[in-house]
Amino acid sequence: MKRSHPHRKCSLPAMFVSLSALVLISISILLFLYRPSSNSVSAVAAAADPGSSSLPELPRFSYFISGTAGDSGRLRRLLRALYHPRNYYLLHLDFAASDAERLDLAKFVKSEPAVSLFQNVMVMGKGNLVTSKGPTVMASTLHAAAILLRKAPNWDWFINIGSSDYPLMPQDDILHIFSYLPRDLNFIEHTSDIGWKEFQRARPIIIDPGLYHSKRSGVFWAKEKRSLPASFKLFMGSALMILSRSFLEFCIWGWDNLPRTLLMYYTNTLSSEEAYFHTVACNHRDYQNTTVNHSMRYVRWDEPPREEPANLTARDFDGMVGSGAPFGHSIPENDPLLDLIDRKLLLLLTDKEKRNPGDGVVVRPHSGSKRLEKLVVTLLDSHNFRSRQCK
């Protein structure tokens, strides 16, 4: 039976999330809520009923899209690929980029008809100084989250996107599947089994000149090493995340002192963006059970020790599709793979074919939603979800 919703229209190939998938997701939600009330049980049952007229409210994402000198063109392409009227977007070219590049990016944003109508894209007028592998990367992310918390109302998840990332499915598919998820889930790939990173990341002490200089340079290394902390447990993982609004409010407003304590600790830690949010979440009882151990990115790593992701090419296309991940990392600029993704996965339209921006509240899921559904059901399965949290 066909269901209608004022905010959603489904194409025939992916009209609904399958009944079995919704049942599994619903079970996970019930586990997540611990003590479900009769109302929550009724809501889950309604969501799992393919004949139900009740659909969950669509979420909103806030995207932080960042790049450096020479990345203005890549950010423009990313914005077009990621754009949806429901979402918010903050674009950032760091301190290494020229004012002319930032101005050019701002002019592009102003010239886009949909953006002018919905007023949901911001360009940072001043770039942060970001040192590779230094804490300034973490600081820039926190800065972006603070801006979006203040300027963009009512969003549910924060997604950080670099210039070498790219979506692997339309926003309609992601919004559709995420509408069935608890809004406080945090998708963070993490582990406490840090292995070689203990001696190359955790114990060394570094100083990032970007914190006090106006010119970019490498980090400084102290001769001394430090022991592992005793008052909290270290977690490390991917710097690519999808974080809930409630968790970021906790990190920035910090009614508990943990976020500030860890912020000071990670100021002298190499690649702190790969550990700060992970350690905050896993050391606080309110957020330990909100973590989903996946970055929601398709990444192909280099050979051991897997320190850097390998560049994706057209040979990775089938692997990307099969992963069900909504984003890919990392893809070289102007690589033919980007055109292949645009044509086969994003279904990007020509200027004449583009939807009327006035129907921005309409969501039309396609085949990508089925791939993402499969991934989400696997991640929230009872054998995977709890057993992989903060271990």
TrEMBL record:
<keyword id="KW-0472">Membrane</keyword>
<feature type="transmembrane region" description="Helical">
    <location>
        <begin position="12"/>
        <end position="34"/>
    </location>
</feature>
<dbReference type="InterPro" id="IPR003406">
    <property type="entry name" value="Glyco_trans_14"/>
</dbReference>
<keyword id="KW-0328">Glycosyltransferase</keyword>
<dbReference type="GO" id="GO:0016020">
    <property type="term" value="C:membrane"/>
</dbReference>
<keyword id="KW-1133">Transmembrane helix</keyword>
<keyword id="KW-0812">Transmembrane</keyword>
<dbReference type="Pfam" id="PF02485">
    <property type="entry name" value="Branch"/>
</dbReference>
<keyword id="KW-0808">Transferase</keyword>
<dbReference type="GO" id="GO:0015020">
    <property type="term" value="F:glucuronosyltransferase activity"/>
</dbReference>
<keyword id="KW-0325">Glycoprotein</keyword>
<dbReference type="InterPro" id="IPR044610">
    <property type="entry name" value="GLCAT14A/B/C"/>
</dbReference>
<protein>
    <recommendedName>
        <fullName>Glycosyltransferase family 14 protein</fullName>
    </recommendedName>
</protein>
